[in-house]
Recover the amino acids of this structure.
């Protein structure tokens, strides 16, 4: 049973749950959970499109009242990443196989390497340098088993567990976890969030390969800034570099 204190909106088809939340924000009773069977213009990071077969996956947006300084906004991304991992574990995926690819793609290790199972898109509403409302888009591959051109890079709960799950049961797990962990972000327990987040972060204190422009480099993430930037210590030279999102590409 979906927790009753969330205002639930369900659409058979919609352009984008995040777009709907943003354009109807003043009309929503918070907290609100919006989900759709199909998104015709699903959104990913940096204007990427999130593709999904109808009625196969969780296509959703959570609209939460928060009160955070804008400088701390990346903690929201860390927090929701940990909640999604908790849900995946409850669905039967070993936490030892789960990684976060910076900044917030959720990956699972398969026989063919790491594959993406979930993506997050956060759009915050800000008043006087304070985040007042967070619109958190979550795409989570549940029952889809064919990804066509993305077959080498995407996976799903069904592929990993050989089981199908009702989308409503996944929503129930997600919203219960959000309810249980809401105080952590509201009380600004940032150290606790980051300590757990870095345990799953791909490349944290361990070598990983990445591409910067046309150069393939090896390094390890040694620091995570509050605004989401990372500091990487390069393996082949005594040098440290700071990167923002999209400046580098992980080579999995």
């Amino acid at each position: 049973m979906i927790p009753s204190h969330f205002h639930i909106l369900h659409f058979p088809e919609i352009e984008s749950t995040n777009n709907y939340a943003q354009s109807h924000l003043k009309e929503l009773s918070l907290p609100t959970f919006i989900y759709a069977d199909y998104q015709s213009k699903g959104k990913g990071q940096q204007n990427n499109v999130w593709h999904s077969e109808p009625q196969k996956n969780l296509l959703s947006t959570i609209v939460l009242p928060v009160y955070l300084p804008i400088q701390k906004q990346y903690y929201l991304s860390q927090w929701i990443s940990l909640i999604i991992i908790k849900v995946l574990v409850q669905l039967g995926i070993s936490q030892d196989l789960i990684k976060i690819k910076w900044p917030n793609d959720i990956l699972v290790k398969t026989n063919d390497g790491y594959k993406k199972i979930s993506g997050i898109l956060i759009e915050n509403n800000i008043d006087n340098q304070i985040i007042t409302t967070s619109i958190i888009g979550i795409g989570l591959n549940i029952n889809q088993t064919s990804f066509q051109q993305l077959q080498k890079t995407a996976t799903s709960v069904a592929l990993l567990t050989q089981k199908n799950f009702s989308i409503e049961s996944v929503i129930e797990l997600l919203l219960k976890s959000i309810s249980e962990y809401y105080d952590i972000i509201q009380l600004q327990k940032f150290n606790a969030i980051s300590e757990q987040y870095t345990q799953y972060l791909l490349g944290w204190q361990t070598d990983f390969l990445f591409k910067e422009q046309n150069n393939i480099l090896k390094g390890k993430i040694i620091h995570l800034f509050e605004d989401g930037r990372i500091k990487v210590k390069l393996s082949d030279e005594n040098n440290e570099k700071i990167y923002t999102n999209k400046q580098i590409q992980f080579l999995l």
